[in-house]
TrEMBL record:
Example of a GO MF term: zinc ion binding
Residues in MYND-type domain copies: 342-384
Pfam families linked: TPR_27, zf-MYND
Identification of the protein by name: MYND-type domain-containing protein
Transmembrane segments: none
Region described as Disordered: 390-412
Keyword line: Metal-binding, Zinc, Zinc-finger
Species: Stephania japonica
InterPro entries given in the database record: At2g35280_TPR_dom, At5g50450/At1g67340-like, F-box-like_dom_sf, TPR-like_helical_dom_sf, Znf_MYND
UniProt biased composition (Acidic residues): 396-412
C-alpha cells in the first residue's frame, strides 16, 4: 500500500510540474501579445509613414471643406437680412409705398423684384391702399392682366380702383351694368368723384333712353359730392340752383355755390404752390390782376375772372385721362356719337343727342354744366359765335364769290 501511495504522489508531482510549465509558457505568450497590442494601440503619428500621414490629412481637409460647403448655404451664402424680416413689417412698408406711388412703375418694380415681394405686394391690405396714380393705367397698356390687377384691387376694397374700373367698363368696354355697380360701390364709401359721375349719368340718362333721366337723383348726388369737397359737383349744383334744373330755383344760392367752387379751386392751387414753390415759380404767372377781366393767353384757366384772377386748370383724374386717350386715339366713339367738348372730361355719348349743345353756336356739346363752364373759360369763350352770324357770314362770302366771278367774266 505504501508503495502504491508513493507512486501516486510521484505521478501527481510530475503532472503538477508539467502543468506549471505549460502555465508559464502560456503566461509568457500572453504577456508578449499584450505588449504587442500596447505598442499597436499607443502608436503615435510619428510612427506612421509620411505617405499615410499625408493621405489622412488630405482626407480630413476634404471632409472639412465638404462640411463647410454644406453649412454655408444655410448660414452665410444664401442668407440675407431681408429673409429675416417678418412678413407683417414688409407688408406695412409696401402699404406705405403703394399709397404714395406717383406712377404705376413705382409699384410694378416691386412686383418684379423677387418672388417674396411679388407675393407680399399682392396682399389685400397692400392693394387696398394703392393710390390713384398707382392705378393710372394707359390705354396703350390695357390688357387682360391690367384688368385682372384692377379687379384684385377692387376685391381688396380699394375704392379708387372701383371708380377707375367702373368708368372704364361703363364708357370704354360698354358694360353699363357692371360699371355702374362699381361706381356705386365707390360712392357708398363716400368717393366724391364716383358720386359726381353717377350724378352726370342721372342727368343725361346715360346707358338708357331719354326717359331714364332722374334730375332729382342727380341733384342729390351732386349735393353729396359737393359736401365731400368735389369742386365740379359744387359748380354743377350752383348751376342747377340758378337754372332751376332738378331743384327749386334759387339764383342767390346758386351764385353762392359758384363762388365757393372758385374759392376752393384757388385754395387748392395755393396749397400746391406752397408745397412746390419751384414749380410754381417756373410756371406761367397765374396769380396776376387783370382789371379788364380778360383771359391772358397761356395763363391757365381764369375761373375767378369775375375778380380778374387767373388760376391753372386742375389736374384731371386718371380715369378721365384714360377716357380721353382711349377715345382720342385708340377707339372711335361710334357713328353719330360725340365726346364731351371739355378736353379734361373724356365722357362719350351712349346714345345720339345725349349731351347738351351750346345754345349760342351749337358747335360744341357738354355732358354737364360744370364741363361747359370750364371749357368756356379755357377755350370756347374766344371761339363762340352765334349760328345766325355764321350763316350770314357764309352767305355774304358766297355773294362776294359770285360777284367776283361775274366781274371776271365781264373783264374777259
Amino acid at each position: 500500500m505504501e508503495k502504491k501511495m508513493k507512486k501516486r504522489r510521484r505521478d501527481c508531482v510530475m503532472m503538477g510540474s508539467s502543468n506549471n510549465r505549460e502555465n508559464r509558457d502560456l503566461c509568457t505568450r500572453m504577456s508578449k501579445m499584450s505588449s504587442c497590442c500596447r505598442n499597436i494601440r499607443f502608436r503615435t503619428p510619428l510612427d506612421v509613414s509620411p505617405v499615410v500621414v499625408s493621405i489622412i490629412n488630405n482626407n480630413n481637409n476634404i471632409n472639412t471643406k465638404n462640411n463647410n460647403n454644406q453649412k454655408r448655404p444655410k448660414s452665410s451664402q444664401s442668407f440675407d437680412f431681408f429673409d429675416g424680416l417678418p412678413d407683417d413689417l414688409v407688408v406695412c412698408i409696401l402699404c406705405k409705398l403703394s399709397s404714395t406711388a406717383r406712377c404705376p412703375s413705382d409699384f410694378i418694380n416691386v412686383l418684379i423684384t423677387c418672388k417674396r415681394l411679388n407675393g407680399l405686394a399682392l396682399h389685400p391690405l397692400v392693394l387696398s391702399k394703392a393710390s390713384p396714380k398707382a392705378l393710372a393705367v394707359r390705354p396703350k397698356s390695357w390688357s387682360d392682366s391690367a384688368h385682372r390687377f384692377l379687379k384684385l384691387c377692387v376685391d381688396a376694397g380699394n375704392i379708387e380702383a372701383s371708380y377707375t374700373l367702373g368708368m372704364i367698363r361703363f364708357y370704354c368696354l360698354q358694360s353699363r351694368e357692371s360699371g355702374a355697380s362699381l361706381m356705386a360701390r365707390a360712392a357708398m364709401n363716400s368717393h366724391a368723384a364716383a358720386l359726381y359721375s353717377l350724378a352726370v349719368i342721372q342727368f343725361n340718362g346715360s346707358g338708357g333712353t331719354k326717359t331714364d333721366k332722374d334730375l332729382r337723383a342727380g341733384v342729390a348726388l351732386c349735393a353729396r359730392a359737393a359736401f365731400l369737397g368735389h369742386i365740379d359737383a359744387l359748380r354743377e349744383l350752383g348751376h342747377c340752383l340758378q337754372d332751376g334744373y332738378g331743384v327749386r330755383q334759387s339764383v342767390a344760392d346758386g351764385r353762392r355755390f359758384l363762388v365757393q367752387a372758385n374759392a376752393r379751386e384757388l385754395a387748392g392751387v395755393l396749397s400746391s404752390a406752397t408745397l412746390n414753390p419751384s414749380a410754381a415759380a417756373a410756371a406761367c404767372p397765374w396769380m396776376t390782376w387783370h382789371p379788364s377781366h380778360r383771359h391772358v393767353a397761356g395763363a391757365g384757366c381764369p375761373l375767378l375772372s369775375d375778380f380778374g384772377c387767373n388760376v391753372p386748370a386742375a389736374e384731371a383724374h386718371p380715369a378721365s385721362r384714360f377716357l380721353v386717350e382711349w377715345f382720342g386715339a385708340a377707339v372711335a366713339v361710334g357713328e353719330g356719337l360725340r365726346l364731351c367738348s371739355h378736353g379734361g372730361c373724356g365722357r362719350p355719348e351712349t346714345r345720339r343727342n345725349e349731351f347738351r349743345r351750346c345754345s349760342v353756336c351749337g358747335a360744341v356739346n357738354y355732358c354737364s354744366r360744370a364741363c361747359q363752364a370750364l371749357d368756356w373759360k379755357v377755350r370756347h369763350k374766344a371761339e363762340c359765335a352765334p349760328m345766325e352770324q355764321w350763316i350770314q357770314d357764309e352767305r355774304e362770302r358766297e355773294d362776294d364769290d359770285d360777284d367776283a366771278d361775274a366781274d371776271g367774266e365781264e373783264d374777259i
